[in-house]
């Protein structure tokens, strides 16, 4: 039965580690956060889907739902958000996932019955179409699969998601904006993605997940450095899972630092504003800090020991529930 009104919520995400690995069939360790996007959809039979701005992303989600054979009834939608936009916290993915869940709910499709992989792929296609960034599946999967108290180890080759308890033992994670908006970064992001595809093609493998360390020297610069980042970042995700399991938070901090150095030196994804933010957080006592998300601006993630006060401008983040329908 279809509902007259559905409210759906989808959270933003923090990625603990595993950056620019998703579109290389690699590994990431994100978690959903408390902040996110709430979408209210009201049935308006005989009309189009209206409201929400108008937002090209909302229209793209509607088009992708229809292309996937889903019935999308006429509706009026309202959007509210407490998630910072353009700061690398996946606000676009949260909007796409919330709109999709709300419209599916209106059509009488219960969110839990819709194939998770189908839904995240559909939202990804909508983002590609509306925003022009060829993003991977990290943001959508993190938003949909979040669970309180846990990060999610995602293997993008199989799309398997394993919850990993994020027990921080009094340590805290915080994010700070670099002041540089992420949305200006589409061209840099797409260029990195194209470089990885070129590297895989030159090596004759389907994705960089299937390459190994001996392949690095077979590639010209900068493709050799892109591969070196992807391989070492996948490895750091596994080490971060082990560090969490062994309650080695100082070790986790060192992995965040190493991820940042790799993204800066091998992936060329940092900016002076991001570097200043990382330096400021380390000087303020962070045990590790790194650029987060696509890079080229956006937010910095940092880990603080139990005795260190969160510096000015740093917002504490903790793992929260994934996207869900709130009421219908
Ligand atoms: C952005 C993209 C993701 C992912 C990250 C980098 O957030 O949307 O798909 O590629 O950058 O890890």
Walkthrough of the structure:
With 328 residues, the chain is α+β, with helices and mostly antiparallel strands. Helices cover 37% and strands 22% of the residues. The protein has eight helices and twelve strands. The strands form three sheets. Strands 4-5-3-1-12 form a five-stranded mixed beta sheet. A four-stranded antiparallel beta sheet has the order 9-10-8-11. Helix 2 crosses helix 3 and helix 2 crosses helix 4. The longest helix is centred in the C-terminal third of the chain and has 23 residues. The termini are close together. The model has no long low-confidence stretch (mean pLDDT 94). Alpha-D-galactopyranose (GLA) binds next to helix 4.
Which secondary structure elements does this structure contain, and how are they paired or packed?
Layout: E1 5-15, E2 27-28, E3 30-43, E4 49-51, H1 56-67, E5 75-81, H2 91-106, H3 116-131, H4 138-145, E6 150-155, E7 160-165, E8 172-177, H5 186-203, H6 223-245, H7 249-265, H8 272-283, E9 288-291, E10 299-304, E11 315-317, E12 324-327
Parallel strand pairs: 4-5
Antiparallel strand pairs: 1-3, 1-12, 2-6, 3-5, 6-7, 8-10, 8-11, 9-10
Helix pairs in contact: 1-2, 1-3, 2-3, 2-4, 5-6, 6-7
Bound molecules: alpha-D-galactopyranose.
Features of the shown structure:
328 residues, alpha+beta, Ribosomal Protein S5, domain 2, Alpha-Beta Plaits, 2 domains, five-stranded mixed beta sheet, four-stranded antiparallel beta sheet, binds alpha-D-galactopyranose
């Amino acid at each position: 039965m279809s509902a007259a009104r559905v409210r759906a919520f989808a959270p933003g995400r923090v990625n603990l580690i595993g950056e620019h690995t998703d579109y290389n069939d690699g590994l990431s360790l994100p978690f959903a956060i408390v902040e996110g996007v709430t979408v209210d959809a009201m049935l308006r039979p005989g009309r189009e889907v209206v409201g929400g701005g108008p937002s090209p992303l909302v229209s793209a989600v509607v088009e992708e739902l229809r292309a996937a054979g889903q019935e999308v009834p006429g509706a009026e939608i309202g959007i509210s958000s407490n998630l910072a936009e353009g700061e690398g916290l996946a606000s676009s993915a949260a909007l796409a996932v919330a709109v999709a869940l709300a419209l599916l709910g209106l059509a009488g499709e219960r969110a839990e019955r819709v194939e998770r992989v189908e839904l995240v792929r559909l939202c990804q296609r909508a983002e590609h179409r509306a925003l022009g960034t060829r993003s991977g599946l990290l943001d959508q999967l993190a938003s949909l699969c979040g669970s309180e108290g846990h990060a999610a180890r995602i293997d993008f080759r199989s799309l398997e998601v394993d919850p990993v308890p994020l027990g921080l033992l009094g340590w805290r994670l915080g994010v700070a904006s670099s002041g540089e908006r992420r949305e200006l970064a589409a061209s840099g992001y797409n260029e990195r993605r194209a470089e990885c595809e070129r590297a895989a093609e030159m090596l004759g493998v389907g994705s960089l997940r299937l390459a190994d360390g001996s392949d690095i020297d077979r590639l010209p610069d900068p493709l050799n450095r892109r591969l070196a980042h992807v391989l070492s970042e996948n490895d750091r995700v596994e080490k971060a899972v082990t560090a969490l399991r062994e309650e080695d938070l100082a070790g986790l901090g060192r992995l965040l630092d190493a991820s940042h150095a790799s993204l800066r030196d091998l992936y060329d994804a940092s900016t002076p504003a991001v570097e200043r933010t990382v330096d400021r957080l380390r000087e303020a006592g962070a045990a590790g800090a790194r650029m987060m998300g696509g890079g080229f601006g956006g937010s910095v993630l940092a880990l603080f020991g139990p005795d260190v006060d969160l510096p000015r401008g740093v917002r504490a983040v903790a793992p929260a529930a994934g996207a869900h329908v709130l009421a219908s």
